[in-house]
Design brief:
The chain is mainly alpha-helical and 270 residues long. The protein folds into two domains: 32 residues, no CATH class; 197 residues, MetI-like (MetI-like fold). Helix content is 77%, strand content 0%. The chain is flat and about 70 Å long. The two termini are 30 Å apart.
């Protein structure tokens, strides 16, 4: 057989090579298991079927309640995410620029990173009262430290060759950071953004379960808690389904697109 001869793949092998199709099959299998188990359990108050959950999901969307709650949640998370990312970059720049900055960062990470965001809920309630400011405060804590660690790890992992190139071009201070360190550390930064997003998303739902309604219009977490109290369990599962869908979209659409257009395109990751 000649080396340049192409191997013909079967239809099944071509289908198995499509990533989104494989993932769709996994989701469909999980939905089928959900439906089968719920039908076998036959207790809608404890575990509604997948079909009933989907009906409740679209009903909540049609009424406008679920979209408004989702927007409220995402608005707070994006605000906290932006503040946390800016603080993480600032802390890391100070840490790599001075010895005392590095010591401060190490101490802060050692003290605060192990502290669960939920543990700060009582303090947030005391300092900021009920409402969005308390949730944003807790979310910043959830986002900040994972992102800081990944940015710092990426900066310290930049090769000396790249650093010397930057210095030979006369780059110093913020120019050196934004033109040399950040592009070279982009894989680690992107990983930190994904991890911190996941931390923030989970923390948001937990925080809203506690006091998300105080601002007058709670988010998805309060939607879930409220429907549980009203025994609308299909809507509770619809809220959980919304959390899952948003997580999948952010991970597999937003971050995948950013990764393909940056680190993969530039050959930094395969």
């Amino acid at each position: 057989m000649q080396l340049d001869e192409k191997i013909e793949l079967s239809g099944w092998e071509r289908l198995c090579g499509i990533g989104w199709l494989r993932k769709t099959a996994v989701v469909a299998a999980l939905a089928a298991l959900w439906q089968i188990y719920a039908m076998w359990l036959d207790n809608a108050l404890m575990f509604p079927t997948f079909g009933d959950t989907v009906k409740a999901f679209f009903s909540a969307i049609a009424s406008g309640e679920l979209p408004s709650r989702t927007v409220n949640s995402l608005r707070m998370l994006l605000l906290a995410y932006a503040i946390g990312a800016a603080a993480a970059i600032a802390l890391t720049i100070v840490a790599i620029g001075t010895r005392i900055g590095n010591d401060i960062l190490e101490v802060l990470v050692a003290m605060l990173n192990p502290l669960a965001p939920v543990a700060l809920l009582p303090l947030a309630l005391l300092w900021f009262g009920l409402g969005a400011p308390s949730i944003v405060f807790v979310l910043i804590h959830a986002v900040l430290w994972a992102l800081t660690l990944n940015i710092y790890s990426g900066f310290t992992g930049v090769s000396q060759t790249l650093r010397m190139v930057g210095r030979n071009y006369g780059l110093k201070g913020l120019k050196f950071v934004f033109l040399i360190l950040i592009p070279a550390a982009l894989p680690s930064i992107l990983t930190g953004l994904k991890v911190s997003w996941a931390f923030g998303w989970r923390t948001l739902i937990a925080a809203e379960l506690v006091f998300g309604v105080s601002s007058g219009s709670g988010g998805i977490g309060w939607f879930i808690f409220e429907k549980k109290n009203q025994l609308d369990i299909d809507l509770v599962f619809a809220g959980l389904l919304t959390v899952i869908i948003i997580g999948i979209l952010v991970e597999n659409v937003l971050f995948k697109t950013i990764e393909k257009r940056t680190v993969q395109k530039w050959g930094m990751r395969h």
